[in-house]
Specification:
The structure holds 2 protein chains of 2 kinds. Helices cover about 35% and strands about 25% of the residues of chain A. By secondary structure, chain A is α/β, with parallel strands linked by helices. Chain A has a domain of about 110 residues: Rossmann fold (3-Layer(aba) Sandwich). In chain A, the strands form 2 sheets. A 6-stranded mixed sheet of chain A has the order 6-7-8-3-9-10, with helices on both faces. A 4-stranded antiparallel sheet of chain A has the order 2-1-4-5, with helices on one face. In chain A, helix 4 crosses helix 5. Chain B is an all-alpha fold. Helix content of chain B is about 75%, strand content about 0%. Chain B contains 17 helices and no strands. In chain B, helix 3 packs antiparallel against helix 14, helix 4 runs antiparallel to helix 5 and helix 11 packs across helix 12. The longest helix of chain B has 29 residues. The radius of gyration of chain B is 22 Å and the shape is globular. The chains are: A alpha/beta, B mainly alpha. At the A-B interface, helix 2 and helix 4 of A face helix 11, helix 12 and helix 13 of B.
């Protein structure tokens, strides 16, 4: 399967905060139509690693390749230009604005006078919500008035709407109920089928076993290893996360 | 009954907070009118009120953006004084040397120079706040001291007077009004523009298949707006020029001055027209431009704005540059109204401006605020002050009342927000 060019290759990424190396010489890759889980304890460096890709942080060292070509990602705008979209754990929504304004934040639809066209944006938002979450009907209120699941819908819609090729999901189901979690799982499978590559950051082993093709485990800023999900057991993943121990290849 | 009310309000789509503020203002006016024996709600007083409000109201529209992005600007009063001083010196001591005294272009050059100066100083303060990350409170507190001191330095404390006669028209004295006919014209144009805007918005909404308000609600809203605009024109036109000015007017027009006096209308004052233009432009900027959208997004969640690719540092520079430009416009109005620039020009204006924005519903926690709210806030503040002065309330008690009202208004706003869940 891995004969294709990877969508993303992050090579030897390093990033330190003060004296602490949050990410220490980590390399991961991602292929089209694949879900790669990035696992680790709190503080293992997985969010930091992924924020380097989304442009929120700038790496001290290392290289990023998009479709085999070297990419320069200095800020979130650069990442978006490479069709890398991110759903943050915090959702990163402007709570005082409505769903449409959030969906199009930074990429507003403007009319021929350069004026923001709220009606057109609302119409587009209604269209895509119809597809992704038909239960979503509250288009007028600021998103602070929405439920956790609805807010998540807005964040996901925003990432999917603009033809993402690479999707980063940081704990997408952490704040959701079982029904909404199932919805996210379904969405991930759907996006996978469309050839989108997904980095999934999660604590939840079950999520990971169910949704991911491969996993990259991090501990104390270092990469423990990358394995095919089919080749390892729950326990082996847990020992990678907790002990930082690579599974023995005997089985 | 309550439910019916709520349905009606919902159908018309009225902003309840706006209604509340207008209600408070009307109540205030009635109380002052009753306690001054009908002297408050006269054309003369309402004319003066609108002229006195203009300078602070212009600045308060910019302060909305500043506060919405979670900053504050304490320097606007001092900056107004400094820009006023520079403009005064420029038009009295520098430009006449090259152009000759009373040259027609002096007022324009002065105003443009003031505008440039305000924008540059505002952008500079914004740069320190955005890029050097010094808190806005500190930067503009420093600015307050710096610009007040700089204003003194320009003339070594001397008052600059009298200002250029064309320039003075921008302050809305006897000469600085539109007169009856032009006022009617402005009123008509404003009414037509308002109605056309409403019709276009309704069409656009229904073309997307959105629910629109019932027609009667649109008519009612259009009617109220029309009544308000034309009513204002009628009142301003009902205020005649004083005898001396009417005589001068008659002479200039070549009419004989009748023995029983001549009724020449003031009409709308020029500073009010300036305020109107500023209000429209700022509302469009806030609601219809990307810049405005980013201002509100950044105020709502700075991290989210940054992650959405918005350059929040540059945004801070732009917001403060805009504040500086509006301060310059206010400086033109304030100095032109007095016809002179003294050292005390703009003293404590920063507090009036912040109070106006906050009474108008701008939340200091960021992300929430409206231009019209700030302007109504400015009118409420000015009404309180001139009303109490007319009633004869002692100056110390006046500031006590204003202070209490400020806190009370914000408290009511917080309670309203909690109830409405916004």
């Amino acid at each position: 399967m891995n004969k294709q060019t990877p969508l993303i290759e992050m090579k030897n990424i390093e990033l330190a905060f003060g004296g602490v190396k949050a990410v220490n010489d980590v390399s991961v890759d991602l292929y089209p139509g694949e879900v790669v889980g990035v696992l680790g304890h709190n503080g293992a460096g997985k969010s930091t690693l992924i924020k380097v890709l989304s442009g929120a942080y700038k790496a001290d060292a290392g290289e990023i390749f998009v479709n085999g070509e070297k990419a320069t990602i200095n800020n979130p705008r650069d990442a978006r230009a490479y069709n890398i979209e991110t759903i943050y754990q915090t959702l990163a929504l402007a709570d005082n604005l409505d769903a449409a304004s959030n969906l199009f934040l930074g990429r507003e639809i403007v009319n021929k006078f350069g004026m923001v066209d709220d009606d057109a944006m609302e119409a587009e938002t209604r269209k895509i919500m119809q597809r992704l979450n038909p239960n979503f009907t509250n288009f007028k209120s600021p998103v602070s008035a929405l439920s956790g699941g609805q807010r998540q819908s807005v964040a996901i819609t925003r990432a999917v709407y603009f033809n993402a090729r690479i999707l980063i999901m940081d704990e997408p189901t952490a704040a959701l109920g079982p029904q909404e979690t199932a919805m996210v799982a379904e969405l991930i499978n759907q996006l996978k089928a469309e050839g989108i590559g997904i980095f999934l950051i999660s604590h939840d082993i079950h999520d990971v076993m169910e949704l991911c093709d491969r996993i990259s485990v991090m501990k104390n800023g270092k990469l423990v290893g990358t394995e095919n999900v089919a080749d390892v057991t729950d326990d082996e993943i847990l020992s990678m996360i907790i002990l930082g121990k690579k599974p023995t290849k005997s089985n | 009954m309550k439910k019916i009310m709520r349905n009606v309000v919902g159908a018309v789509g009225i902003d309840l907070r706006l209604l509340g503020m207008i209600g408070a203002l009307v109540l205030l006016w009635i109380v002052f009118d009753l306690s001054t024996g009908g002297r408050f709600m006269t054309p003369r007083n309402l004319f003066n009120l609108s002229v006195q409000t203009a300078s602070v109201a212009v600045m308060s529209t910019g302060m909305v953006f500043v506060i919405v992005t979670r900053h504050i600007d304490l320097s606007v009063g001092a900056l107004l004084g400094f820009i006023g001083m520079v403009m005064g010196t420029l038009q009295l001591n520098i430009l006449p040397e090259y152009l000759g005294f009373g040259h027609w272009s002096i007022w324009m050059i002065t105003a443009v120079a003031g505008l440039l100066l305000g924008t540059i100083i505002g952008a500079f303060q914004g740069w320190i706040i955005g890029y050097l990350t010094v808190p806005a409170f500190i930067v503009t507190l420093g600015g307050l001291l710096v610009w007040r001191g700089a204003a003194w330095w320009v003339t070594q404390g001397q008052t600059v007077a009298p200002l250029d006669s064309t320039f003075r028209m921008l302050g809305g004295g006897v000469e600085g009004t539109l007169g009856a006919q032009l006022s009617w014209l402005v009123g008509m144009v404003a009414t037509i523009a308002a109605v056309v805007t409403m019709v276009l918005a309704r069409r656009r909404k229904s073309s997307h298949g959105f629910k629109v308000k019932p027609l009667w609600a649109e008519y009612a809203q259009g009617g109220i707006v029309t009544l308000f605009i034309l009513g204002y024109v009628v009142i301003m036109n009902a205020y005649p020029l004083p005898k001396g000015a009417a005589k001068r007017y008659a002479e200039a027009e070549g009419i004989e001055y009748p023995a029983d006096g001549l009724f020449i209308s003031h009409g709308i004052a020029i500073p009010v027209i300036i305020l109107l233009v500023v209000a429209i432009v700022m509302t469009v900027v806030a609601q219809k431009t990307r810049f405005g959208r980013y201002v509100f997004a950044t105020g709502g969640n700075p991290d989210a704005a940054e992650l959405s690719g918005i350059n929040t540092r540059m945004l801070t520079v732009k917001v403060f540059a805009l504040m500086g430009a509006l301060t310059a416009i206010a400086a033109v109005i304030a100095s032109a109204r007095l016809g002179a620039v003294g050292n005390d020009l703009g003293v404590l204006d920063e507090l009036r401006v912040i109070a106006a924005a906050v009474i108008g519903g701008t939340a200091l926690s960021g992300g929430i605020g409206t231009i019209y709210g700030a302007i109504i806030g400015a009118v409420i503040m000015q009404s309180l002050q001139s009303g109490m002065a007319m009633v004869g309330v002692d100056a110390p008690l006046q500031s006590i009342v204003v202070g209490v009202v400020l806190v009370l208004a914000v408290f009511i706003d917080i309670v309203y927000r909690r109830r409405a869940g916004v």
